[in-house]
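# nightly structure sweep
# worker-07 picked up a monomer target from the shared queue
# config: single-sequence mode, recycle default, output format = structure tokens
# input follows
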Amino acid sequence: MEDIELKNIWKEYDRKIEEAKLINMQSWVINFKTFEYLQTEKAKSKLNSLGTLKKWMIFGGILWLAFLMFLVLNSLALWKIFFVISLSAVIVFNVVGIMVYIKQVVLINEIDNSENLIEVQQKTSELQASTLQIARILFAQSPFYTTFFWTPQMIASNWTAFFLISLPVTLLFVFASIWLYRNINYKNADKKWFKILFSSKEWTSVIKAIKFMKEIEDFKREIV
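# output follows
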């Protein structure tokens, strides 16, 4: 009789343990889903604000391109050859830049419409890589801003100043743009020069969104 009662007590104890485990599991799922939703919405909010900024930048970029094209079309003369070449190069870089910005806006819209956490994380990482890409592109055009005022007459009449001042300045910009193009990557994100260059909303918004996503993974690991 005592054995039967003891077995019943153990069965009741096991049942309560299983019920407690089930309740804890349900509670964890609810807590995790709530935290996941809140963090994802925070990330989307940051990126939506960034998307609005990028739309204005696209609009401004199109106006800037129109202005540059107007200057080029009205400067088709031999003595303005350096001016035309320089502005044409800047136009090419800015066209590529605007296309990247449009891609980023599409990515942000896809993130906002996505309900899948993995997809949000993947597209946010794509946006981060794209932000670095646009920075490389915009810095790569910088040497052409030092050559637009050159003229054949200036070089012929004052070649000493050209070779001692103008050309070295341009070469310095070429070196700087190449160095930045090669070194602008996430592995240098903790370096001072990187933090100075990438202190704007374009970068910080993406980093904060990624941080919100990472906190979801950290929360999951802590609970499990």
